[in-house]
Amino acid sequence: MQSPRASTDHTRRRLLTGCALAVLSAALPACVSEPPLKLSTHPWPGHGFLWLAQQQGVLAAGGVRLIELASASTSLHALSAGIVDAATLTLDEVLRARAGGIPLTIVLVLDSSAGADMLVARDKVADLSALAGKRIGFERSATGALMLSGVLKAAGLSAADVELVDVGINMQEAAWRAGKIDAAISYPPVATRLIKHGGHVLFDSRSLPDTIFDVVAVREEALLAKPAAVATLIDAHLKGVDKWRGSNAYQQHMLTRWLGLPPAKARRIFDGLKPCDTAENLRLLGGTSPLLAQVADTLVLKLAAENIDARANGPTPLIDATHFPEHAR
Q1: Cα–Cα distance, 316 to 328 (Å, whole number)
Q2: In degrees rounded to 5, what are phi and psi of residue 155?
Q3: Is the pLDDT of residue 1 over 50?
Q4: pLDDT class for 73, splitting at 50, 70, 90?
Q5: CA nearest 275: which of 142, 114, 68?
Q6: Domain extents in the chain
Q7: For the segment 88-116, what is each residue's pLDDT rounded down to a tens digit?
Q8: Of 33, 113, 234, 245, whose Cβ has the fewest other Cβ atoms within 10 Å?
Q9: For the domain bounded by 118-207, which CATH number is listed?
Q10: 4-21+35-112+212-328 with 118-207: one CATH topology?
Q11: Phi, psi of 109 (to 5 degrees)
Q12: In angstroms, what CA-CA distances link 178 with 140, 172, 174, 223?
């Protein structure tokens, strides 16, 4: 059962999100010549190559403006309000947004989760069965619901056996340090800090293969109006992945700063995460029946089992792989 405090925190966060979006909307000029494609993101390793491209001026030169927001939930509000044209989201978040009437198309897969999404628990929660009666903090997103479902199934528990606390990713560390939660469904860099504060990992996304992907999704009208900008952001990510595989020290240094990680973690930024290069993108997005579309169909059924509607609402195609560089196709 959701606690009254969790409900209050959720309402407060929605109000704060509304204020943040109002400020953001006011800050973006309504009438400018050749407006850039506005892409929202939030700190996450898989988004880092786009952030680096922004720092280096590559995105701006190609007609893309990267806007950093607090979370994926805030990006979804911005997309719904028409404040941004595109966002870095998880596959399930895209499906839910499309079900809610936002005409989004996936143009790029940034990464796949292979342990990065996890349940971090305090020492007193020695194993999954010990979660009974404990307070689990999680963000009420589709990814949160999928991870929670996996955790409870592995623990042999139901939602009624635990106390669910609605806490956004940006508030998890504070809730942990204040003793308000016993465990949290989290991801780096926040999960890394929870572990530093004495937590340990009991479950991660390796138990949910081909389920959690981070992607770039673009509103239909922006995809039609700004194809060159879309190609720019795709190329920027792919080149970033290639450089990373060459153990680029500059990338490591900059990304650890952006993610708020200590320098010692520089070489482990992508632990539990697989950055998707050109070949992986074409494997997932290419062909007449893209693999990611098949994964999405399966995911819709999984979400329906959790009473989350992720069925498409409108004719906008889910995937468009036509904006990749010619040499990559």
Answers
A1: 25
A2: -85, -10
A3: no
A4: confident
A5: 114
A6: 4-21+35-112+212-328, 118-207
A7: 999 989 999 999 999 999 999 999 989 98
A8: 33
A9: 3.40.190.10
A10: yes
A11: -100, 120
A12: 20, 10, 6, 44
Determine the Cα–Cα distance for residues 133 and 135; give it in Å rounded to an integer.
7
Tokens 């506005």 sit at which residue? 38
Interval 172-199: pLDDT, tens = 999 999 999 999 999 888 998 999 999 9
Domain 4-21+35-112+212-328 matching CATH 3.40.190.10: the answer reads yes
Q: 310-314 long-range contacts, Cβ below 8 Å, gap at least 24?
A: 310/92, 310/95, 310/96, 310/98, 310/99, 310/142, 311/99, 312/95, 312/98, 312/99, 313/98, 313/99, 313/100, 313/101, 314/98, 314/101, 314/103
* Two tokens, residue 265: 């973690």
Question: Do 105 and 223 meet the contact criterion of CB atoms below 8 Å apart?
Answer: yes
Q: Is the dihedral of CA 292, 277, 69, 82 positive or negative?
A: negative
What is the mean pLDDT of the segment spanning 196-208? 96
Considering the chain, what is the average pLDDT of its residues? 88
Tokens standing for residue 176: 């942990």
Place of tokens 């990749």: 324
